[in-house]
Write a structure and sequence with these properties.
By secondary structure, this protein is of the alpha/beta class. It has helices at residues 6-11, 28-36, 50-63, 79-88, 105-110, 122-130, 154-164, 178-186, 196-199, 208-216, 238-248, 253-260, 264-270, 294-314; strands at 17-19, 41-44, 68-73, 93-97, 114-119, 135-139, 145-146, 169-172, 191-194, 222-225, 232-235. Helix 4 (79-88) links the parallel strand 3 and strand 4. 51% of the residues are buried.
Length: 315
Amino acid sequence: MEINQPICQLFGIKYPIVQAGMIWCSGWELASAAANAGILGIIGAGSMYPDILRTHIRKCKAATDKPFGVNVPLLYPDIEQLMDIIVEEDVKIVFTSAGNPKTWTGFLKDKGITVVHVVSSARFAQKAAAAGVDAVVAEGFEAGGHNGREETTTMCLIPAVRDAIDIPLIAAGGIGDGRAMLAAMALGADGVQVGSRFVASVESSAHQSFKDVVVGAAEGSTVLTLKEITPVRLIRNKFYQDVMEHYARCAEVDELRALLGRGRAKKGMFEGDLDEGELEIGQVSGTIKEIKTVKEIVEEFVAIYNSSVNKIKMV
């Protein structure tokens, strides 16, 4: 694999792969394993109280001497405390999402922190670049978790964002192996962010029952819904059917919010309630057939990427 990518230089990593900072799945064990495998590990702060985040950062530092970062959704109420902890604990890389990058990019950059913002359109990529971020993650419709309302697929999104900005670009959404990575880079990405594949890893903090559901998912098992609140891709289960029943009777947004309530994602992904929990995962889950270690996943990515490059050279 060509390692002289802008993303590798920016983060100080061996391979241009970022392990996504997913709520309830991306604790210090996953982030440190990713870092030790030569990619950028990310702690997902979205599901953590401030003191929990501090603990995860310290444990991650004890488990690896390689670069890692923290993902912070900007809509969370404890955002000021989270940012202060990130600075206090000397985290060098921060991924922000779900909010205006202007709000915190300057603060973080002033502290010498590399900042990356997650976007779902070329227009928002331009705004992020104007705000001074060092790179953007462009996340397509295929992704799990919080998603774009425009439903733009990764295949369409990456070229559009590449033409709109001149800073490093990381592709996300539907990146499940080295073939997809090569395709994303052919479209103009400098690297990829991988989420769902790492949910089904040994080191993921997801509940084993959720991991098993991800491995058992098939084509069409996930649906993007709840766009009136925050778009999210869910595996079809009882909670999803309850959402569909609300839509069928044209429920108001407040009713949807009440149904979602608090802690629904924790119940499903972290506690393993497969009926009442919110089971967030990307479309690529339909291709995941085995739970592996992070090291095995990264090695497989690299091997498939290289073999795919060689096949193209032979054409």
